[in-house]
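Pasting as-is:
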Amino acid sequence: MTPDPLRKPPWLKKKLPRAEALADMTRLLRGHGLHTVCERAACPNRGECFERGTATFLILGDHCTRNCRFCAVPPGHPGPPDPEEPHRVAHAAVSLGLRHVVITSVTRDDLSDGGASHFVACMQAVRRALPEASLEVLVPDFQGEAAAVDVVLAARPEVFNHNVETIPEFYALARPQAIYARSLQVLRRAAGRRASVVKSGFMVGLGEDASQVHRLLEDLRGAGVQVVTIGQYLRPSKDHLEVVEYVPPEVFAGYRQWGEALGLVVEAGPFVRSSYLAEAGFARARGLSAPGD
């Protein structure tokens, strides 16, 4: 692949975070032996979030059994689940004073339950340590295994999130080991249980058009999703998919308006990510004011 030919527009520039904030968060995370998706997925918001004292915990290793062509998390063979990881996640959440704890994982197609039971162990550990905190899980598709989805739902996370990532027409290109209909099935099952706020997210800038984005939002609404995040795809390296378009803020505003007309809570913008300002999105979904507003 050739280097990305597009130049980033002004709206994709962010101020540099304070070096000491990054160092403090890194020291805390390494001290607990934890990974974050903020770091492994090269999130453009990680500096801002680390300055605010928030992070999204990445469990079940830092290598993924899939090789999606948009994702910075490296493919590989992660080791067995660490039985001490749930306790370390809980201790880190306490150290950070989190009120809304977001936990995600690499995809573990090598495990019989896709890592569902480990998600539950992490949730239970956090609940024991921070009983007042809300919990959000961003899960893989568990290869469509309904029993694995049910295991996670039975632990009653306040937010159940599974990202569709892109329009169905781009699955073969961007995430060939995933199936669009299977992801919708996971979301539909979660919505049917009515135990959690159901959330999903996707990126734009890969060459999709507005009608395809509108159909995707309609599909998500039809699956029972309540909260949707839409952000700009940013190429992690020259080995990943090229950016076709840097979508301007006014187009994101139009997508937000379309989704909200469908009855969705939509967070849309160039830097929006699935777990970025997740507590505020949860508050909106619950019809509340976010803390500090």
